[in-house]
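User: Can you fold this complex?
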Amino acid sequence: MSDSSLAPPAVFMELHAGNRKRLVAALRAHLSTSGRPLHGIVLLKGGEEQTLYCTDRVPLFRQESYFAYLFGVREPGFYGAVDIASGQSILFAPRLTLDDAIWNGEKELSSFKDMYRVDFVFYVDDLAQVLRCQFSEHGEPLLFLLYGKNTDSGNYSKPASFEGIEKFDTDLSTLHPILTECRVIKSDMELAFIQYANDVSSKAHIEVMRQIKPGMKEFQLESIFIHHASMHEGCRHCSYTCICATGHNSSTLHYGHAGAPNDQTLNDGDMALMDMGAEYNFYGSDITCSYPINGKFKRNQTIVYNAILRAHNDVISHMQPGVRWIDMHKLAEQRILESLKKENIIHGDIGDMMNQRLGAVFMPHGLGHLLGIDTHDPGGYPKGLERPKEPGLRSLRTIRELKEGMVITVEPGCYFIGTLLRHAKDDPISSKFFNWEKIEMYKSFGGVRIESNLYVTAQGCKNLTNCPRETWEIEAVMAGAPWPSRDDCSSATTTKNGLPKT
Amino acid sequence: MSDSSLAPPAVFMELHAGNRKRLVAALRAHLSTSGRPLHGIVLLKGGEEQTLYCTDRVPLFRQESYFAYLFGVREPGFYGAVDIASGQSILFAPRLTLDDAIWNGEKELSSFKDMYRVDFVFYVDDLAQVLRCQFSEHGEPLLFLLYGKNTDSGNYSKPASFEGIEKFDTDLSTLHPILTECRVIKSDMELAFIQYANDVSSKAHIEVMRQIKPGMKEFQLESIFIHHASMHEGCRHCSYTCICATGHNSSTLHYGHAGAPNDQTLNDGDMALMDMGAEYNFYGSDITCSYPINGKFKRNQTIVYNAILRAHNDVISHMQPGVRWIDMHKLAEQRILESLKKENIIHGDIGDMMNQRLGAVFMPHGLGHLLGIDTHDPGGYPKGLERPKEPGLRSLRTIRELKEGMVITVEPGCYFIGTLLRHAKDDPISSKFFNWEKIEMYKSFGGVRIESNLYVTAQGCKNLTNCPRETWEIEAVMAGAPWPSRDDCSSATTTKNGLPKT
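Assistant: Here's the predicted assembly.
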């Protein structure tokens, strides 16, 4: 691995213009099919800065994701509009006071037009008038507003609102599913940014691998990752809070939050589970590496690790358009159960275990999720697709068929979670599958997860992540061997089915 | 400066217990004076995790500051109560589901009692019943809730609410001013944490000074600071978004936000203005260093820098209990104007300039603010104290008399802000004070700020910040000289009037 910085994609505003173009095409196709007129205005409100509780402390602003997708605007307080008839785009910027200029800097309205490459810019307080006058060709324009449910959070997006909106006709149902579906399929330019975030994060993970040693604190691993991504590659945001779990902590899936703030001392002989991803120009990555803190896999660590690696690789080799994601989840579960059975950690018929949903005891989360501007990118459950109810399966953030252009994480894991194992032991049917003596030996093991980001191609998929995955590769890199080797250092390695070259 | 880590204070929960004790004493004194019964229950609601817009992305939780002050709880979703009669404290923790245990970790209720050293712990859903039964000695208890205005943001704190609260008598006016006043005067334990945050930040600033060079990007300076504070000293939060402004950017007071994300390339010959502070166990620091990117002060940089240093030092030498902060602000303005006049950048009578509020053209912000769990700690304008209306003075976050135990920032600055200079030029009275030819030479200079954190003592004040301040010290440290020198490396240097040793 070279110490030089990576080069981010050179396109920025072309990307967002492309996103708007795809939205307009999709909307026009939809309206045309329903026999509705091909005009109206898409209107979105960007995010606002929020203060922390009652104070004036303002956490670093991050744009709302749908607004970022269409306009790429970094600042708070904007509105954005797209005219469906002409495809023209307008940004409405907040009007600055003298105090704003002093505290936040002077900015000419026209500078936003140059920066964000839209057709027009106006002030927010002129919004109603501009919408009425600029686009009155077809009479008072119909406003398409964004309103719909995020199937991961259960929250609803808040439709744009402004003084005088009651005088416009509005449509709250059309835009959300269509815009969401646009976000599901990534353009080449979007892919370039996700690839960049992956390249940065892969490098930063390797930096952590090389610096980790017993006696350090978990938060130091977080610090190394964030610093590397920011200092060398300009990623000011991470896609999510870093999970730096070692030893038993790695059985807490979202370890690293305020109540478990990556603050344990690293023990010689324990495993580390590092789930960290950087974000660049809104687009993210989501990568997990698991490895022994001291750089040498012990036998039981190799067993669990290889069970997960086999599931990870097998899923990737099966991925292609048309494949159902729920089947990939079950495939991963089956491979994990087979491996555990081989080691006599569980016993019995694999089919019976699958029927009993035993896989969810070891992997209670879903196999993976769509990835883009959001770490859990929306569109996992479009209308008509119901979330399963069974353990494990109900944690899936999507059960869709794969389509060319999707980016999705593959993140099988195996954890020894006290509360789930106790439940399984108390259940007379589940209980008999376990070799409880063996399980006891793993009770403070924690867990292993391997997570890569995959781009679905016409024939298969491309692995955007480039971290050492085989145990011998990991041991070599942790001992100082170069990664990637000289002949495949151009972004991520890939083969027809997305497996890293070995 | 040694490369070894600093040692944070060993007390944690004693600090918060001490804070509760002081609140109870202050409340009892107040109730007693007003002839009211000396019982009732202080009830606060801690912060909740917030998702970003409609997504399930959850920024790292930071506890609400009043709640942090009294209970030190790191996790979201808690309530906390203090019984005024007995001084006993109770925490109410959210009841976890099986899913919570899997995703966020298992935690026994009793573990919170041990961790946070309170007298009782219960679940949130038992709150109404516990309040009614546990403290029924004096009949149904009166609940003292937190409701009041933050004078920096203009926001109001949200009083605790829970199912069944309507059956209790509540008092919304007593608690806020008393609890706020408790926060204004720092205990020794609180001071120890603010000192630690200062020690960490001083070291991290020096690290930045040593690594800065032309050609770097501003965000790299931010990254070095954050990494140093986190990696070596365990500070996971900064007190505020880093301001890493170079050249002309340093005339934007809150540069570094999303619209101006510290992304300029560093130019040889420009000044850097670095306003960054780490936070530890909720307590913060707020430090600004200004210096030339290439490590050598040019003549005009020395002029502006020394004008500010003189104001900074002169204010500190005057600080002691009873001194009015607005007078310190004016003293700083006067010193700056005197220095600028000496260099013929302005001309005329200093008294006339002061009457004309000319100081606010060069320093439109306030001289400093209370500092503690919030960067802009509350209590700057207690009841009866009105915010001034004049330019510059109206930006003061407090105009109080200094009291022993206050921690306050001293941060004079001088900036060449286009919009303010244009206004001054257009004003026939102000205009005549300026030597516009000279001003033109500074138009892309940016600005200089020097900011230290001061603890008001009985006789004067103690400077908690320990960064090189004299131009020759800065040049030496940037060239690799040790800092602090061997004989004063124990936390911050101090003299009777808080000036750093030179």
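Confidence is low (pLDDT under 50) at residues 486-502 of chain B. The longest strand of chain B covers residues 271-276.
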